[in-house]
Write a structure and sequence with these properties.
alpha+beta; 4 helices; 48% helix; 147 residues; TATA-Binding Protein
Length: 147
């Protein structure tokens, strides 16, 4: 019985997530933005002079849009608590690292999620890409963030 309830819940989440994106009428600006998001790697480099602003944007993002609170924040790591959702309550957490590389820094953004489901995995990847683009450029369209 528990497995049946979980399966139904995952199906509902999958349908809701898929229909939300596919039925969305996008403006040309939104389409261009999502194209930049889709091409945004979750590991990227920034000039050291840009790193402080990018790190501040990451902290702001986590405070506003993560399902989980910050567990640890240093000059080189931001990590939330691990998500502990269920079929009716999807949660997203984040881990962001910054590594000095000469006159640049390498940033890695990971979005974790619970409960595990294929559609939620793609939403988590998109969230990480949106966060990466926001860190890199300050550009964001909040409506595309899954929470």
């Amino acid at each position: 019985m528990k497995n049946l309830i979980m399966a139904i819940g995952m199906l509902l989440i999958s349908c809701a997530s898929t229909s939300q994106t596919s039925s969305l009428k996008l403006t040309p600006d939104e389409s261009e933005y999502l194209g930049r998001v889709d091409n945004m790697p979750t590991e990227f480099r920034l000039a050291k002079v840009e790193a402080e602003d990018a790190w501040g944007r990451a902290l702001s993002w986590i405070g506003k849009y993560s399902s989980m609170k910050i567990q640890n924040a240093t000059d080189y790591t931001i990590a939330t608590y691990n998500p502990d959702g269920n079929v009716f309550n999807v949660q997203y957490g984040y881990s962001i690292t910054k590594a000095p590389m000469g006159d640049s820094v390498e940033i890695s953004v990971v979005c974790t999620f619970d409960p595990p489901a294929l559609v939620i995995k793609s939403d988590a990847k998109r969230n990480a890409q949106i966060l990466g683009l926001y860190m890199k450029s300050g550009e964001v369209m909040w409506k595309f963030i899954k929470r």
